[in-house]
Specification:
The chain is of the alpha/beta class. The protein has 14 helices and 22 strands. The chain folds into two domains: 265 residues, Aldehyde Dehydrogenase, Chain A, domain 1, CATH 3.40.605.10; 190 residues, Aldehyde Dehydrogenase, Chain A, domain 2 (3-Layer(aba) Sandwich), CATH 3.40.309.10. The protein is globular, with a radius of gyration of 23 Å.
């Protein structure tokens, strides 16, 4: 990696300094400082809003066909930076380098998908009963702002940038302060792909220094947040003052129901792979496992074997299959939940400790807990880490009720060999996304999002671009 200087992007220009103290970024594998980022405040936000205001008039007037052309060019520029982005991502969040490039590929697909959506932003015409025509047209909602988390630092901002640009909206991005270099590389791809000045802007720094000015601005008409439910409630309350539109992907606590008629060992392999991906720091990670009693021991034995086979190590080591947690506070939370579960009767099958050969960094062994009682904290609180709590069930209806027992509704999963049960699980699991015999629910061409405490609105698919549009009706009469 030749350039390791994070930059902000305002009005088409990259900057490495502001009037605020820079913020250090630490490597979660060893705690050492990777680099420092320029930090923005109200002054930079106000400047960015001015550029976005100017860009809105010109960008919204660009034909969708031309916007699609630019989105495809950004996709190519992003793909060309795959290696650099993967390296920055692995250093900043600790994900194994062998697994990081895939996220860039998924982000490229977002730009390609929304290029097509931009080209097909057609309205509708209805004959009026009073004569003339009812013309229905979609218009850009206005200036948008995106607040994103660190756990998927490429895909999360891109899932907001791509539909906003396709709809004709300028967007200001405030990424997590943990991932400034990854964010800089995305910004560079947008500029190199032809995004005009002010259409895409990146403001690095702390949320408390940036977000209030954005939230107070009447001209910002749409907020898209990926974060915790706690933060989502705060943003929604602030958005009410200026009646901003909100779409939010918030916390989740995805249940998994394993029926005895499924391919139990194959289900365990798939579940373990997804559970420990990104050290469990995935919003749609399978988090609570309800396994039919007659096959529970088989499922656990395979799950434990998969966990023990993982290689913990430095994110830049090609042999590593699981890195550290990104934040020390995240590791402490997972340790608290493990201790609580064991104290309430759960059986620790493997893991649960900081590895002996890793005395620096935020490592935690992949952990499997069996016979976890429903009153354990981990069955109600999202762990966001490498721990799998498993419980038994005997009655199918009881399993569904337990799966639906939290206020979250992002994703839910099930494994069964019965078509009838599959239909029931799809219908009865309360979530925005359900996977039956698969954990793959994120696709560029399909809606992604949750219900209840997991948020509102959708990213991906045809549905997402609607959140960046207003619908206008014109009744056209001729005399």
């Amino acid at each position: 990696m030749t350039d390791t200087q994070p930059k902000i992007l305002i009005g088409g220009e990259f900057r490495t300094e502001t009037d605020h103290d820079p913020i250090d970024v630490r490597n979660p594998c060893n705690g050492e400082v990777l680099w420092s980022q320029p930090a923005c405040g109200p002054k930079q936000v106000t400047e960015a809003l001015g550029h976005a205001r100017a860009a809105l008039k010109s960008w919204s007037a660009v034909h969708g066909w031309e916007r699609g052309f630019i989105l495809r060019a950004i996709a190519r520029e992003l793909a060309a930076r795959t290696d650099a982005i993967a390296e920055a991502l692995s250093l900043e969040i600790g994900r194994p380098i062998s697994q990081s490039a895939g996220e860039v590929g998924a982000a490229v697909e977002q730009f390609e998908w929304y290029a097509g959506e931009a080209e097909r932003l057609f309205g509708d015409t209805i004959p009026s009963r009073q004569g003339g025509r009812l013309m229905i047209e979609a218009e850009p909602v206005g200036i948008c702002a995106a607040f994103t988390a660190w756990n998927f630092p490429v895909n999360l901002p891109v899932r907001k940038i791509a539909p906003a640009l396709a709809a004709g909206c300028p967007i200001i991005v405030r990424p997590s302060e943990q991932v400034p270099l990854t964010s800089t590389l995305i910004a560079e791809a947008c500029v190199a792909g032809g995004a005009p000045a002010g259409v895409v802007q990146f403001l690095l720094g702390y949320a408390e220094s940036i977000s209030p000015t954005i939230m107070d601005a009447d001209e910002v008409r749409k907020i898209s947040l990926t974060g915790s439910t706690r933060v989502g409630k705060i943003v929604m309350a602030q958005a009410a003052d200026t009646v901003k539109r909100c779409s939010m992907e918030l916390g989740g606590h995805s249940p998994v129901i394993i029926c005895a008629d499924s391919d139990v060992e194959a289900a365990a392999v798939q579940c373990a792979g997804f559970k420990f991906r990104n050290a469990g720091q995935v919003c749609i990670a399978p988090n609570r496992f309800y396994v039919e009693d007659s096959v529970a021991d088989r499922f656990v034995d395979t799950f434990v074997a998969e966990a023990k086979a993982l290689v913990l190590g430095d994110s830049m080591d090609l042999q590593t299959t699981m890195g550290p947690l990104t934040l020390d506070s995240g590791r402490e939370k997972v340790e608290r939940l493990i201790k609580d579960a064991v104290g309430k009767g759960a059986c620790l099958k493997t893991g649960g400790r900081r590895p002996d050969n890793r005395n620096v960094g935020y490592f935690l062994e992949p952990t499997v807990l069996m016979d976890v009682p429903d009153h354990a904290d981990i069955m109600h609180e999202e762990p966001f880490g490498p721990v799998a709590p498993i419980a038994r069930f005997k009655d199918f209806d009881e399993a569904v009720a337990r799966a639906n027992s939290t206020p979250y509704g992002l994703a839910a999963y099930s494994f069964t060999g019965s078509h009838k049960k599959a239909e029931r699980l799809s219908r009865e699991l309360h979530a925005g996304m359900v996977g039956v015999n698969t954990l793959m629910v994120a696709h560029a061409e399909a809606p992604f999002g949750g219900v209840d405490y997991s948020g509102m609105g959708r990213e991906g698919g045809r549905e997402a671009i609607k959140d960046y549009q207003n619908t206008k009706l014109t009744h056209m009469m001729w005399r």
